[in-house]
Design brief:
The protein is elongated, with a radius of gyration of 30 Å. A hairpin with a 2-residue loop joins strand 20 and strand 21. The strands form seven sheets. Strands 7-4-6-5-9-8 form a six-stranded mixed sheet, with no helix packed on it. Strands 16-13-17-21-20-18 form a six-stranded mixed sheet, sandwiched between helices. It is an alpha+beta fold. Bound molecules: adenosine monophosphate and magnesium ion. The site of adenosine monophosphate has 18 residues, from loops. The site of magnesium ion (MG) has 4 residues, from loops.
Length: 401
């Protein structure tokens, strides 16, 4: 018999049973940090930028020299030199003078603004006409505008993104400490499954879950150990599950998670450990098992790929993040739904949607076995357990994958 929990209860049970212990830390090169969880706050030790810089091509000036000038009444300044990229400004400005500077160039002593090239005219003989006044600070960034020593540039727990790598490189942090990846073991079960490289015979299907869940888990920042396909043979699966529980931090077993005679996952988890819950009041994904073998979380996922995916997204992903002390950021969009959706009393329904050009959420309908309904989905909406259904045009929150 299933002892069904709501999704909220399921999340709480998982949270309560698998506390975060010590999370080992390792050092990686900046270039390998993408997607990893920072184990340290990244504090700036220097000013970025390290000097006042121009943001345009033009002339560094003393702002007050340009006040009141215009197209018809240019301020005429003497050119005291050119600042070369990559070099410290070798000139300093005195009233009535200016210096040529490129975007990103160092600003000379005395300069407090830059006039864009487009607003100037070169009269030759070292005379530059300024056609438009510049307020102090115009077209420049100041030393430390980005970060100053002691500023926290990145927080521990951040999942490193490409622009975070940009920050690390600006700060010269070529090696950073990150959390060691949780290893997730993936086991697929079913007499009907063949490897994706094979042509299935009648009655057979290709194993979708092993590659899909492996990819999902990797995209969540964990590393994956795929154990392959196992026939519905209790002893074979048991051996694989015990091996995975020994070698991995989390185990996912897809297929055979219902409460029928031929469903072996519950029997195996129960005899080797404990079952924390069997059944989640959600659609798809009801026949889900959460258990433990020793202190390792073991999930019995429904074989239906879409169901397996949703359970992994909703329950395994936060657990992976928590076990690595990562911050989970789920991006959501508020949208109107394109069509009415009937209610599903008693079960929270997770429905893949895509956002069309107008930003309307369009449900992708499909039986949970059909993986094609996830292709093209931007994310999903949740229709709560106690909802009366949604009318066309109702406001929904789309959670992006
Ligand atoms: P089960 O949960 O074992 O009852 O399987 C439910 C449905 O999902 C059945 O139609 C299975 O054939 C299918 N299924 C189970 N495992 C996989 C898999 N790894 N890849 C694709 N479909 C699967
Ligand atoms: Mg099966």
């Amino acid at each position: 018999m299933l002892t069904v929990k709501t999704p909220e209860e399921a999340a709480e049970i998982i949270h309560g049973r698998f506390p975060v212990g010590e999370v080992p830390v390792e050092q990686v090169a900046m270039g390998d940090a993408l997607g990893r969880v920072l184990a340290e706050d990244i504090l700036a030790e220097e000013y970025v930028p390290g000097f006042d810089r121009s943001t345009v091509d033009g002339y560094a000036v003393i702002a007050s020299d340009t006040f009141g000038c215009s197209d018809s009444l240019p301020a005429v300044l003497t050119l005291s030199g050119e600042i070369l990229m990559g070099a410290a400004a070798s000139v300093s400005l005195t009233p009535g003078s200016c210096a040529a500077v490129s975007t990103g160039g160092d600003l000379p002593e005395g300069a407090d603004a830059v006039v864009m090239l487009e607003h100037t005219e070169d009269y030759g003989d070292g005379l530059i006409g300024i056609l438009s006044p510049a307020a102090p600070g115009k077209n420049m960034i100041f030393k430390g505008d980005d970060v100053s020593p002691g500023d926290r540039a990145l927080k521990a727990g951040t999942v490193v993104s490409p622009h975070d790598i940009g920050i690390l490189s600006a700060l010269g942090r070529c090696v950073v400490s990150v959390r060691r990846k949780v290893v997730v073991g993936v086991i697929s079960t079913g007499d009907e499954l063949v490897d994706p490289s094979q042509t299935p015979g009648r009655g057979q299907i290709r194993d979708v879950n092993t590659p899909m869940l492996a990819a999902a888990v990797e995209s969540f920042g964990a590393s994956v150990k795929s154990y392959g396909i196992f026939r519905d043979d209790e002893e074979l699966i048991r051996k694989a599950v015990l091996k995975a529980a020994d070698e991995c931090g989390i185990v996912l077993i897809s297929g055979g998670s219902s409460a029928g005679m031929r469903d072996l996952t519950a029997r195996i988890i129960e005899s080797e450990g404990e079952i924390l819950l069997h059944g989640i009041a959600m659609k798809p994904g009801k026949p889900t098992i959460v258990g433990a073998i020793g202190d390792k979380p073991v999930f019995g996922l429904p074989g239906h790929p879409v169901a397996a995916y949703f359970v992994t997204e909703l329950f395994v992903r936060p657990l992976i993040a928590r076990l690595m002390r990562a911050e989970v950021k789920r991006r959501t969009t508020i949208a109107r739904i394109s069509e009415a959706v009937s209610s599903n009393h008693g079960r929270a329904e997770y429905m893949p949607v895509f956002l069309d050009e107008e930003g309307t959420a369009r449900p992708i309908r499909g039986k949970s076995g059909l993986i094609s309904c996830l292709a093209g989905a931007d994310g999903y909406i949740c229709i709560p357990r106690d909802s009366e259904g949604l009318a066309a045009g109702a406001v929904v929150e789309v959670t992006h994958f």
